[in-house]
Amino acid sequence: MPDGAGRSFTFLEQAAIADQIDTGSQPHWLRELKESGASIFKKRGLPNRSDEYWRHTLLNQLVEIEFQLSNESPRVGQKQLSQVALAGLSSYRIVLVNGCVRKDLSSIGDLPKGVLIAGFNDVMSLLPNRLEKQLGHYIDLKNMPMAALNTAFLKEGVIIFVDKDITVDKPIELISITVPNKNPTMSQPRFLIDLGENSRATLIESHIGNTEIPYFNNVVSEIIIGEGAGLDHYKFQDEGTAAVHISTTALRLHKQSLYGGFILQSGGLIGRVEASAVLDGSDSDCRFDGVYLGRDNQLLDTTTSIKHVATSCKSRQVFKGVLNGNSHGVFQGKTHVSIGAQKTDGYQLSRALLLSRDAEISTKPELEIYADDVKCSHGATSGDLDADSLFYLQSRGLSPDVARRVLVEAFLNEALAEIKLNEVYEGFRSHIRGWLNKNINQTVAE
Amino acid sequence: MALLEIRNLHVKVENKPILNGVNLKIEPGEIHAIMGPNGSGKSTLSYVLSGRDGYQITDGEIIYNGIDLLELEPDQRAREGVFLAFQYPVEIPGVVGLTFLKTALNATRIHRGQNELDAMDFLKFVREKAQSLEIDDEMLKRFVNEGFSGGEKKRMEILQMAILQPKLAILDETDSGLDIDALQVVSKGINALRDANRGMLLITHYQRLLNYVRPDKVHVLANGRIARSGDEALAQELEEKGYAEFNVFVE
Ligand SMILES: Nc1ncnc2c1ncn2[C@@H]1O[C@H](COP(=O)(O)OP(=O)(O)OP(=O)(O)O)[C@@H](O)[C@H]1O
Ligand SMILES: [Mg+2]
Questions:
Q1: Is B128 part of a structural domain of the chain?
Q2: What is the rounded distance in angstroms from the CA atom of residue B95 to the CA atom of residue A321?
Q3: How many domains are contained in chain B?
Q4: Rounded CA separation B47/B122 (Å)
Q5: How many domains does chain A divide into?
Q6: CA A3 to CA B145: how far, in whole Å?
Q7: pLDDT-based confidence at A48, cuts 50/70/90?
Q8: How confident is the model at residue A45 (pLDDT cuts 50, 70, 90)?
Q9: Would you say residue A141 lies in a domain?
Q10: Which ligand is nearest to the CA of B45?
Q11: Structural domain of residue B134, as residue ranges?
Q12: Which of B92, B107, B111 is opposite residue A392, by nearest beta carbon?
């Protein structure tokens, strides 16, 4: 264990516990939920090498820096916002700055009937009973220390409810921005998304950092997709260069529901996006796809778990990573098929491209199958760009850099093709192109 | 000035000598054919000319248009007008054919001080060339060479040549694997590019191609050297007698 790990444990633990003292006005259930988070985190501390799914992702930053919850609301204008939002997209938008919901920057005034998009505190006063029934019920805090930490601090976040049979007419954009603050900022936002039966929605979640100063964004999302409902969920992790981004998403899919998740991860010094789904009702369809782009000393971790409980469900995961510099990519993907989950169709593919000799990938694909009538496969590859293809492109006049960029884009296309919404596809692609232009520009390739 | 002059070229691959003193001079406007037994080093020569990695040049020089070709990177050579039609064109999944052609053309145009073609002009330009090679839009929209038949790949190579308008074209067995009709289409494509300033090096095993594209000179590459040079009649002679005469010298 690194030096000072004890101290870090103490500071985050202390902060989590101190936060409980100020709970006077909170309902009993919320206090209990927070206390359970705090006590689990206190018991386990920060994840370390002995935690199976955290072996590669050590959070030394959280040992060394005393992050504080942000209470102030720094100045962020519409102009700054428009720089991070997706171009040409008309959406319902809710914005968080340093972890706090900012109504002045949000546009959720004219929501259609049957749709609620609001800050956690507003929903606490409006629909406390519904929150009580759902919050924390879909996530396994005991095995998710960072989600436990988030729960200990639970007081800010975004709640999205879509009623039965409603199709939300525009995408919902959830934008979290972090800007420099006096003290190193920590945010512990909590999201709860509940789609009623046969409803449909698209969610675009972006985490953007406008600073090179270290900060810590620890996000937890609980997503429930009702029978016959469908959610397309795009997640963009582009935190500041010194940030630690941890996000934990727990999904519950009911009968005949659809979830299409796509993660583009390129920000932060440490970025970890973890998603776990439980396929609870038959004939549901769950997809996790994504692209991660690592450079310099970044560590980018994608950890997924799909648990097939009901019969005849489909799951599919396609992740493509590009690692440059000294970056380290981690992909841990698990498909679990329970004993009753016959006719499961599970597919998983992880491919990483190492653009430099010092880049590294750790992959852990897992299939755990307890049913006998299933179709499951997984594959993982990693390697360099194909020398014959590079030469072929160069022999047609493309410079080595352009040839490399063309091939990297081609490599990513298989995952990007999963994006259904055109504005997101274009936005992500232009972000990727920008990244490639910045990161593949040494004429002499190593 | 010769378009291409290869002097005393010695090349090793993995420390094994493949070319042992090749001399060859191509003037602008000339078409040269190189024939020779399998493994005699014809593709090696074409790769060395286009700058592929993995070849040790132990002696000799290659002067192209008055410049030392060996000093240039593969992409620089291409932009300077050297084109290789590959014996085995590479499949590149994920890269759309049209996008690839456009990127390649514009790289060369910028180098020549011309403006980049916009999407409309480019499409018009490509379609026209593609049509004469019997390549349809569907093929252009597919990923580069992916799943193409042998003959389709060869036609694509000629299309690329027609688009890039090189000064020196090296065609490595472009006729192999073509059916009779495709051979005519491809030959027409090659002849269309025959021009007083352009030189071509046709690597082939069959006289068949040379009936359509009539060479100015024919060479036999054997034992890592140009063992014999002549005119069209040499190709005819080889067709009848084979390479026995040359194999005598194999150690
Ligand atoms: N990477 C390599 N490693 C070892 N030997 C090689 C390599 N590349 C080529 N060679 C050898 O060099 C020799 C010449 O090969 P080359 O492909 O140039 O022949 P070729 O004349 O084009 O033959 P063909 O008519 O069959 O196309 C062969 O003996 C081949 O095995
Ligand atoms: Mg050959």
A1: yes
A2: 18
A3: 1
A4: 29
A5: 1
A6: 55
A7: confident
A8: confident
A9: yes
A10: 1
A11: 4-246
A12: B92
Q: Which residue has the tokens 């199709």?
A: A167
Nearest Cα of chain B lies from the Cα of A356 at a distance, in angstroms, of 19
Mapped onto helix, strand or coil, the DSSP state of residue B48 is: helix
Task: Compute, in angstroms, the gap from residue B221 CA to the centroid of ligand 2.
Answer: 11
Q: Do A409 and B94 touch (CB under 8 A)?
A: yes
B90, B116, B161: best mutation site toward chain A, by most A Cβ within 10 Å?
A: B90
pLDDT tens digit sequence for A295-335: 999 999 999 999 999 999 999 999 999 999 999 999 999 99
CB contact under 8 A, B78 and A411: no
| Residue B251 counted as domain residue | no
Answer whether B74 touches A (CB < 8 Å): yes
* Residue minimizing CA distance to atom 27 of ligand 1: B38
The secondary structure of residue A196, as a DSSP letter, is P
Contacts of B162 in chain A (CB under 8 A): none
Q: Which domain holds residue A187?
A: 8-281
Q: Which of A398, A409, A414 sits opposite B75 (nearest CB)?
A: A398
B14 ligand 1 Cβ < 6 A: yes
The domain spanning residue B196 has which CATH number?
3.40.50.300
C-alpha A114/C-alpha A208 separation (Å) is 29
User: A111 exposed, middle or buried (CB, 10 Å; 0-12, 13-18, 19+)?
Assistant: middle
Give the Cα separation of A223 and A231 in Å (integer): 9
Q: For A50-96, how does the pLDDT look when each residue is reduced to its tens digit (9 = 90+)?
A: 888 999 998 877 777 888 887 767 778 787 787 777 778 899 999 99
Residues A292/A321, Cβ–Cβ less than 8 Å:
yes
Length of chain B: 251
Reported as type and span, the H/E element at residue A352 is: strand A345-354
Q: Where are the beta strands (DSSP E) in A200-344?
A: 200-209, 216-225, 230-238, 244-253, 258-265, 270-279, 285-294, 299-308, 314-323, 328-337
pLDDT value at position A74?
A: 78
CB–CB of A402 and B51 under 8 A?
no
| Residue B148 reports pLDDT greater than 60 | yes
Structure-block tokens of residue A112: 């259609």
Would you say residue A367 lies in a domain?
no
User: Domain for residue B13, yes or no?
Assistant: yes
Is the ipTM higher than 0.85? The answer is yes
Report if residue A444 sits inside a domain. no
pLDDT of residue B169 exceeding 90, the answer is: yes
Q: pLDDT-based confidence at B193, cuts 50/70/90? A: very high
Rounded-to-integer distance, Cα A56 and Cα A331, Å: 10
Q: Whose CA is nearest to atom 16 of ligand 1?
A: B41
Closest-CA distance of chain A to residue B237, Å: 34
